[in-house]
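Cross-check.
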Amino acid sequence: MIYVVIGFLWISLLIYLLMGGADFGAGILELFTSKTNKSHIRKISYQAIGPIWEANHMWLIIAVVILFVGFPVVYTTVSVYLHIPLVIMLMGIIARGTAFSFRNYDAVKDRMQWVYNRIYVYSSFITPLFLGVIAGSAVSRKVDTVAGSFLSAYVYDWFNWFSFSVGFFTVALCGFLAAIFLIGEVKDDESKRRYKRKAVQMNAAMLIWAGMIFGSSLADGIPLLKWLLGNIISLLTIISAAIALVFLWIAILKDQVISMRFLAGFMVTMLLIAVTYSHYPNILLLKNGTELSLLHHKAPDKTIDSLGIALLIGSLFILPALFYLIYSFGKKDQQEAV
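Predicted model, tokenized:
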């Protein structure tokens, strides 16, 4: 049953990165859009993410609950030593959700719309930034559980080039996913060209920050190249992601909406496999040379069994409800368009 629980943890993170990534990415694109086009992207992004924006964070909640119940040592260590970026990320989630609601559902359109818009776009940037920072810190061997000072224990473990490079790469990836998704939501050629340009810009930013990740990993002695190229699974998934990116751009140029969305999801899946398989089952690499493992630092077997059963049963309700939510919003948009 432990592998069922680990599988749900990994899938929850993947879905959150894909769906939440496109969600956050819409705000990121709006942040880097000219004033004349901001209203257009607000309208399109609302139509696109409206069905799932509230459900996105369900996947993050599931991942947190799995860590809390199934891997309490991992949960405690992360929540204590990485509490600063965690709090910033959570504040970003709350601020973004609040601003999204008020700017789209507020009955009175007044000067506060300016405030809501600013909160929305900046929190859309900050949240994936610190999500990536936390992910980078988890594998950077910067977390020092025996630190003798506040800065060593709670700041230096995440405030470094490698962690922020991963964070900015995550931001660019979210913007790229949003651009890919929004290309299929618009009908006129001018809008399609606009979001294709956004996709080019975000793809370029991804490559730049990927280079920063490798450079900072070399500077900090993090064996990232060995992780990605030192085993056949990670190597094959990296090659698959690169090939998918090539075919993705072919699909973009040909306006093949279904293909581009599938290939974008496939590329992200391959990247996540590559970066997680290389040090599996270790999930948190500590500065003292030890690791926290999903297999060795788990809850008692009875707890894991109960958690696995609950996840299996819950999935029977969650997934159909999510599909129905997307379907019902799609019908609503069609009726409003008539």
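The chain has one domain: 2-218+295-333. The two ends are 50 Å apart (CA to CA). Passed to J.P. for a second look.
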